[in-house]
Write a structure and sequence with these properties.
alpha/beta, elongated, binds 6-chloroguanine, 8 helices, two-stranded antiparallel sheet, 5-stranded parallel β-sheet, 240 residues
Length: 240
């Protein structure tokens, strides 16, 4: 990757993205490790009513976001980075499921554009158009099997997962290395981590397991592996 990774977010609620200036993602920006820009879709609204949505062809409940504002907004952020390949991420509950593997892959890309749809989503021609546009890759992504009011929170989730994997962002890169062994399998399936304890050695009658106080690193590693395996097994046998 030759360029500093750039994240452009297009939304009708720019203030929803304020958390990007806090904590890990705020620090990553301050350190100059990532560029993040938020764009108000409303700037490209149409008509005297500043509309970005309209009723669906064919009838049905709710409103659909019109292609024209989206096309203008996406063209504008792409034109500002003419030498980069643009990965357009369309947030939709109908997308492929976001995963740690996808976060790793996206952390190596130069230019990510997040299109935050609201209402019943964005006219599908926007996705279809950019899928065939030169210089673009398009991904439709969902963060899980539930319905949100819009793509903004999903974008925050994805960006935090992606940005923490960019070199230099985490104070201790060992935590990523450890995690890549302990919480993710080859297929991107998440394994459960061992439980953690810190001081005090006893809290409300609950002690820290003796082995963790033993100083015997081989035993500790064995205990942690067993705990992780047992918790993972338990997870697999409940729910879906
Ligand atoms: Cl990306 N958008 C919406 N509206 N709902 C979701 C989602 C995205 N991912 C899970 N639920």
């Amino acid at each position: 990757m030759s360029n500093k990774p750039t994240f452009d977010v297009i939304t009708i609620f720019p203030d929803y993205m304020n958390p990007l200036n806090l904590s890990l993602m705020g620090k990553a920006q301050e350190k100059g490790l990532v560029d993040i820009a938020i764009h108000d879709l409303r700037k490209h609204s149409v008509g005297v009513h500043n509309s970005v949505d309209d009723t669906p062809y064919g009838g049905g409940a709710g409103m659909v976001m019109m292609p024209e504002p989206w096309g203008k907004a996406i063209d504008e952020v792409a034109a500002a980075k003419p030498d980069l390949t643009h990965t357009l991420i369309v947030l939709t509950p109908a997308g492929e499921k976001f995963s740690q593997a996808m976060a790793h892959e996206m952390s190596t890309l130069d230019h990510l554009i997040f299109a935050c749809g609201r209402y019943e989503g964005i006219d599908i021609r926007v996705t279809d158009y950019y899928r065939d546009a030169p210089g673009f890759n398009v991904r439709e992504v969902s963060i899980g099997d539930y319905v949100l009011g819009g793509g903004e929170v999903a974008t925050l989730v994805m960006m935090e997962a992606i940005i923490r994997l960019i070199p230099g962002v985490l104070g201790n890169p060992d935590s990523i290395i450890e995690e890549s062994h302990s919480i993710m399998t080859q297929s991107g399936e998440v394994l459960v981590e061992y439980p953690n304890y810190t001081k005090p050695a006893e809290w409300r009658g609950l002690p820290v397991p003796e082995v963790l106080l033993s100083g015997n690193h081989a035993l500790i590693e064995k205990w942690r592996a067993e705990q992780a395996s047992a918790r993972t097994q338990k997870l697999r046998h409940q729910g879906s």
